[in-house]
UniProtKB/TrEMBL annotation:
From-to range in the entire protein, with total length: 6 to 464 of 785
Name of the protein: Argininosuccinate lyase
A Gene Ontology cellular-component term: cytosol
Pathway: Amino-acid biosynthesis; L-arginine biosynthesis; L-arginine from L-ornithine and carbamoyl phosphate: step 3/3
Catalyzed chemical reaction(s): 2-(N(omega)-L-arginino)succinate = fumarate + L-arginine
Gene (name only): ARG4
């Protein structure tokens, strides 16, 4: 049987279970393209310091491109002894071009190689995630723009509070997502650091040009300390933290919509495309998409907590524990990518029942406005709050709505009430009064839409 790449000092064989336990190719093969990209850049850097002749470099890079093509065409034959994507690619390269393939790894270690691959891979994925996030925000903003007229009760403690525009609520979630967008953009410079040329841990003795390597690979900067370069996985943790927070926002939005889609609320209907039925109860239409958006946050938090736990006790530089960075990262990337797409689909196909929202607007949600009415007549708010509360109690005891009390009823509570009191009982007027920045008036909702559009236009 063939020798392992590191087999020189070994006489005994690897236990088959140990081989399976150790091998990461099963999941790290998804980094095949960036692994080859890194190797092509590295071959170029070796030519520049005279380790490879230009002809050798060409043979190596042509060989690497053939390996890449095999992966792309689904032709790459994984061998039993392949340990990870790095050893698999190098093994195949040497099969294709012979012993010259063995020159590629000069001065390089899988330690700087894997850190390079992970960073490059995440940078590419982050671009897709950024696009997914923008697409989600876009459908939310478009909806908000079209549905500005719809008014519903805004809730605190899930109790009806004050009237708000539906667009205002949608935009509140969009603001969470646009802060996620900014946070994602801000973590990129910390991912975009090149470890290539750090070697195993101490640095590169053939003095390859690390700035050249970084530039070839599109990194923004170079890891300035080789021990840190091979041992750091903060970029993985930071992305897992980012995903956890973004999933929290997706989950909270999903929860709003789950509640609103119950028959008891009836504010929204999920499209069939994002619902499922029950195997026993024929009438059921369940909001599974939303429940999964809420539920999948848990696994992303788990990835974050799990990998932080792996990391926290490690001594400096590379330890094999670091191989455990991959599955949590890959899973978080897959989960957030899918969640963003599903959320976008759910929001863009959601049916909104303006009439149901309107029916939920009971007059008591204008009790604050009633108190404000007296404030405008010069009475301190603490008193007007109390007076309005008594009006609510009066309506309650008479089993009528607040606006069904007569002017005389109001006057019996406070002499400052006058004939214009019934103007208060107008939901549209109530939302329109909230016209300072951030308020739910039409003008301020338009302002929020403009802010969102600006954020999205920024790169
Ligand atoms: N598969 C390994 C990982 O993912 C690559 C680095 C292995 N380096 C080593 N010295 N064993 O971390």
């Amino acid at each position: 049987t063939k020798q392992k790449l590191w087999g020189g000092r070994f006489t005994g064989k690897t236990d088959p279970l140990m081989h399976a336990f150790n091998q990461s190719l099963r999941y790290d093969q998804r980094m095949y393209a960036v692994d080859i990209k890194g190797s092509i850049a590295y071959a170029k850097s070796l030519t520049r310091v005279g380790i490879l002749t230009p002809e050798e470099e060409k043979k190596i890079t042509d060989g690497l491109r053939s390996v890449l093509k095999e992966w792309q065409d689904g032709q790459f034959q994984v061998q039993l002894d392949d340990e990870d994507i790095h050893t698999a690619n190098e093994r195949r390269l040497s099969e294709l071009i012979g012993p010259l393939g063995g020159k590629l790894h000069t001065g390089r270690s899988r330690n700087d190689q894997v850190a390079t691959d992970m960073r490059l891979w995440l940078l590419e994925e982050a671009l897709d995630i950024e696009a997914g996030l923008k697409a989600l925000i876009r459908v939310m903003v478009e909806r908000a723009d079209k549905e500005k007229d719809i008014i519903l009760p805004g809730y605190t403690h899930l109790q009806r509070g004050q009237p708000i525009r539906w667009a205002h609520l949608l935009l509140s979630h969009a603001f969470s997502f646009s802060s996620d967008l900014q946070r994602l953009q801000q973590l990129i410079p910390r991912v975009s650091v090149s470890p290539l040329g750090c070697g195993a841990l101490a640095g590169n003795p053939f003095v390859v040009d690390r700035e050249f390597l970084a530039k070839e690979l599109g990194f923004q900067s170079v890891a300035e300390n080789s021990l840190w370069g091979v041992g750091d996985r903060d970029f993985v943790v930071e992305f897992l933290m980012w995903s956890s927070l973004a999933m929290t926002h997706i989950s909270r939005m999903a929860e709003d919509l789950i509640i609103y889609s119950t028959a008891e609320f009836g504010f929204v209907t999920l499209s069939d495309a994002y619902s499922t039925g029950s195997s026993i109860m024929p009438q059921k239409k369940n909001p599974d998409s939303l429940e999964l958006l809420r539920g999948k946050s848990g696994r992303v938090f788990g990835n974050m907590a799990g990998f932080l736990t792996t990391l926290k006790g490690l001594p400096s530089t590379y330890n094999k524990d670091l191989q455990e960075d991959k599955e949590p990262l890959f899973d978080a990337v897959d989960t957030i990518s899918a969640s963003l797409q599903i959320a976008e689909g759910v929001i863009s196909t959601l049916e909104v029942h303006a009439e149901k929202m309107r029916q939920a607007l009971t007059m008591d949600v204008l009790a604050t406005d009633l108190a404000d009415y007296l404030v405008r007549k010069g009475i301190p708010f603490r008193e007007t709050h109390h007076i309005s509360g008594r009006a609510v109690a009066m309506a309650e005891s008479r089993k009528c709505q607040l606006n069904e009390l007569t002017v005389e009823d109001f006057k019996s509570l406070n002499s400052n009430f006058s004939d214009d009191i019934h103007d208060v009982f107008d939901f549209e007027a109530s939302v329109e009064r909230r016209e300072s920045i951030g308020g739910t008036s039409r003008k301020m909702v338009d302002r929020q839409i403009a802010t969102q559009n600006l954020t999205m236009a920024r790169d």
